[in-house]
Design a protein that fits this description.
Distance between the termini: 61 Å
CATH class: Mainly Beta
CATH topology: OB fold (Dihydrolipoamide Acetyltransferase, E2P)
Shape: extended
Helix content: 25-40%
CATH architecture: Beta Barrel
Radius of gyration: 20 Å
Number of domains: 1
Strand content: 25-35%
Number of helices: 5
Largest sheet: 6 strands, antiparallel
Structural class: alpha+beta
Strand order of the largest sheet: 3-2-1-4-5-6
């Protein structure tokens, strides 16, 4: 019995104190840019849930690429990812009236990808009354880091990070 209690205490001591299964580390904007292999401004055309050719449950997101920045040419691209399926902040909301700045991970060996950092690599473009485009993020650390930068300033920052 003592041995059992000793092993139980040892086992419990080895467990991490916090078991946050869906926690996400906040990524700096620079880290998001450098982790992406495709960056573009796009608009979601449609999403569908289906099984891919290997039988994996997938959410396929069809995007219209408006402004390619890294790794793409202007055309429509299909992006499928298991991560689009379940995660709250990482869930991809398809709204054809909204332009988004996407930072996508490189495709996995099975052809899946997702926005960098469970949704941190998904920013919304907004336009003020004067026509100037800005960027918004639901992640407070990115909202603070990007501050009041307009789209052209964010684009210059992306290009500076990529050139290093």
């Amino acid at each position: 019995m003592r041995r059992f209690l000793f092993m139980l205490i040892l086992f419990l001591a080895a467990l991490p104190w916090r078991l946050d299964s869906a926690s996400t580390l906040p990524l700096s904007f620079r880290s998001i840019v450098l982790a992406a292999d495709r960056i573009f401004v796009g608009r979601c055309l449609e999403t569908s849930r289906e099984l891919d050719e290997r039988g994996f449950p997938s959410r396929v997101v069809r995007m219209q690429v408006i402004e390619p920045i890294l790794g793409l040419a202007p055309f429509s691209v299909s992006v499928g990812s298991l991560l689009f399926k379940e995660y709250g902040n990482g869930s991809f909301h398809c709204d054809p009236s909204v332009n988004q700045l996407l930072f996508l991970y490189p495709e996995s060996e099975y052809g899946f990808t997702s926005p960098v950092g469970l949704g941190q690599g998904l920013l919304t473009l907004v336009q003020d009354d004067s026509g100037e485009r800005g960027i918004t993020s639901p992640f407070p650390h990115l909202a603070v880091e990007l501050g009041e930068k307009n789209f052209n300033e964010v684009l210059a920052l992306i290009r500076r990070y990529l050139s290093r």
